[in-house]
């Protein structure tokens, strides 16, 4: 019996057709009571970008994805213990964190925020990954 549950497995050939990649990945992994969610962006699970040029809308879609992935792993937003948020412009901090804050009201995770020069696709303005621990 595997000790890890891999959620929404995919290969980067389909995800990034504009790049020469061929990596097997997944959107989330549940290892025991811990859930690791891959960085989520403003793209839904059908590959449609939400919020072109709008960091708040992209953060909202990323959080929708995170909520869905956590639920598929048997967790919920209140189980999040750590967030990491990547933005490509420091001016996006306020709208992105306001949006994330709406989703995590009362959760009190630890949080790391980074401003990076770019994300994997030029239209992505924000990426958010989380770690959650399901209570015993």
Automatic annotation (TrEMBL):
Record GO terms (molecular function): deaminase activity
**CDD domains the UniProt entry points to:** YjgF_YER057c_UK114_family
Kindly give the InterPro entries that the UniProt entry links to this protein: RutC-like_sf, YjgF/YER057c/UK114
Q: Show the Gene3D superfamilies listed in the entry.
A: RutC-like
Pfam families assigned: Ribonuc_L-PSP
Instruction: Mention any one GO cellular component term assigned to this protein in its UniProt record.
Output: cytosol
Give the record's family classification.
Belongs to the RutC family.
What is the name listed in the Swiss-Prot or TrEMBL entry for this protein? Enamine deaminase RidA
Q: Which organism is it from?
A: Stutzerimonas kirkiae
